[in-house]
Amino acid sequence: MDKxxxxxxxxxxxxxxxxxxxxxxxxxxxxxxxxLLKEEKYKxxxxxxxxxxxxxxxxxxxxxxxxxxxGSCTRGIKSQPVQIGKIESYIADMAIKEKWNIQKTSNILExxxxxxxxxxxxxxxxxxxxxxxGCKVTIFERYSELGGLLxxxxxxxxxxxxxxxxxxxxxxxxxxxxxxxxxxDINKLEKEYDAIYLGIGANISASMGIPGENLDGVYGGNELxxxxxxxxxxxxxxxxxxxxxxxxxVSRTIKRLGADKVYVIYxxxxxxxxxxxxxxxxxxxxxxxxxxxxxxxxIIGDKKVEKIECIKTELVKKENDSRxxxxxxEGSNYTIDMDYVIMAVGSKADEKTISSLGVDTxxxxxxxxxxxxxxxxxxxxxxxxxxxxxxxxxxxxxSGREAANSIIKYxxx
Length: 413
Ligand code: SF4
Hints:
The protein is of the alpha/beta class. It has helices spanning 3-11, 19-22, 30-38, 42-52, 56-62, 75-78, 84-98, 121-131, 149-152, 161-172, 186-192, 221-227, 245-256, 277-285, 351-355, 393-411, and strands at 113-117, 136-140, 177-179, 195-198, 204-205, 218-220, 237-241, 261-266, 289-292, 294-300, 307-317, 324-328, 334-337, 340-343, 347-348, 380-382.
């Protein structure tokens, strides 16, 4: 075993109450797989991971560990937490190298066919848990590459495409078929399959509705990362609005493309940022400037962005809200010269696609599901970012796994 990983494994005290497992959205049995590693039972450790996840190489690298498992690690109370993500990706990488398969668990869905639309983390997880139970699964992907936001939304410097491909190949080895460059026709799928899972994501950047948002030079962060169709940022001043991982990914990408100055403007405090702490630290190391407790109120320019107007905020306690909320400080407005503004304040589903599906939606325009992960349309299930839930890879994966369990129940009723 790698010396650093061995040190981390030995550092774990195998807590009986498993706080790390309880803080993991997927409920990975972290104490158990670390115990098996201590006993040098590597393959068994991988199999424990596979009970709850099929994306350990990826989650081990890009999950917000400090807000999930590592944030609850007992070791972290007095010192550093166990580096659980590094241990997870180490054992998952070993599985790829040693060609250990994801084990099938049953044949209860033999003879059943399920169409999985999309190939992001929720779809890959749903497809894998169905195939593990003997189902014939076909993944339908609209692009030429599999992975959804893992491929198109996360830059290479954060997730190596080779690791992603190897992880997907391992899932496909369960006997899953793939149709790429697919244009969604739900009526046809409905006739041909016993059930359908919609994991089509929500990758349209939300807007703020502030003056000047239609000027040239204003872009959505999701679209920039997805299409990689960047304007010439060389020597330019760029404001990225938002505090999540998309804001971090897009600001670091733009800095690498030669921008002179990249600001991240976030209306809350650093502690309140949804982005993983390590991503914020990396961004600061790369000389991205953070304007915490600042809010953009307008974008100024003739046809194109020339300046932005911001206002400072204070954090106040509001009734029935456990979080401190940002409130603009009257009279603290100021302007900064700017060439581009990138909106990374959240994402929404593609309205046109959703409206073609004939399913009910919620007030955010996302697909509504019931307690069995089924949409308002019989035999059509949904999960991942296209339903309203927390948008991290692990949360997408758990919703794919839960939907697979619901589909299994539905097909065996
Ligand atoms: S909380 Fe930390 S020390 Fe305890 S079992 Fe989990 S990883 Fe090990």
